[in-house]
Design brief:
Layout lengths: L1 H16 L1 H13 L1 H23 L1 E6 L11 E4 L5 H7 L6 E6 L8 H7 L3 E3 L4 H16 L3 E4 L23 H6 L3 E7 L15 E7 L10 H5 L1 H16 L4
Parallel strand pairs: 1-7, 2-5, 2-6, 3-4, 3-5
Antiparallel strand pairs: 6-7
Length: 246
């Protein structure tokens, strides 16, 4: 219970006390947008690492050297917990925007930081609006910003880590239309930080593995046609492989 309270206090305090930071970075952005963006990235990464530390989370990372350093990428991962974002964003080597549900736009200050970090808000119930979000993601990747999406469409609440919801094929269009690589992210055991025993946060050992880059244009016709299913299979196999590590 103490961990849960500490993290809630930390998040609320950061959001309130960071108002002057947002103002300063807005000014910096008028002269040097890239410096502002990198500053925002590192500030939030520091906070996320602090949250993981307070939560008592032990992290094993595999394959981080597989992420290309000279190009934007589309990170694609399974989604089990709120901590998936905390875990993965803390390790992004460069500017990265996440695709989040549109209801998060209503949260004061948090949404301001998300917009600053190139996050996009997806309306899952409106196909036309969802397409606009994907097109925005394509533009951001063309401008050098990596994107991250969880193609299951929502947090998977199954008790078994190895069970994935079907990946939505449309979510991979950002890679198909830009030609940039997809990086599969396989995440084990984040559910045991919080969701498995909410409202309590408990220490857990999680495993994050980055797969080999996938270039859609180089795939056989059948895999290119069902790119979501192809990525799901890769992530599914890696999760099953790593389950013995947690």
């Amino acid at each position: 219970m103490i961990r849960s309270l500490l993290i809630v206090i930390l998040i609320v305090a950061f959001l309130i006390l960071s108002i002057p930071i947002l103002i300063v970075e807005w000014i910096i952005g008028k002269f040097n947008p890239y410096a502002r963006d990198i500053s925002s990235l590192r500030i939030v990464q520091f906070m996320f690492k602090l949250i993981l530390f307070i939560a008592g989370t032990k992290v094993t990372v595999i394959g981080e050297d597989r992420i290309p350093k000279n190009t934007p990428v589309l990170y694609v991962g399974n989604h089990r917990s709120y901590f998936d974002v905390v875990l993965t964003y803390a390790r992004c080597p460069g500017l990265t925007g996440y695709v989040a549900k549109d209801s998060m736009k209503k949260i004061p200050l948090l949404s301001s930081w998300m917009k600053r970090l190139h996050c996009l808000f997806l309306n899952r119930s409106d196909i036309k609006e969802g397409l606009k979000t994907i097109l925005q993601g394509i533009d951001q990747m063309k401008n050098g910003v990596s994107m991250c999406i969880f193609p299951e469409g929502t947090r998977n609440e199954a008790s078994d880590d190895t069970l994935l919801l079907p990946f939505k094929e449309g979510s991979l269009k950002m890679a198909e239309k830009t030609g940039y690589p997809i990086i599969p992210m396989s995440i084990n055991n984040t559910r045991n930080i919080f969701e498995a025993h909410r409202p309590f946060i408990r220490s857990a050992h999680v495993v994050l593995e980055y797969g080999e880059p996938i270039y859609p244009k180089d795939l056989p016709k059948e895999q290119k046609k069902f790119l979501g299913a192809h990525c799901q299979e890769i992530i599914q196999n890696t999760i099953s492989k790593n389950q013995s590590l947690v």
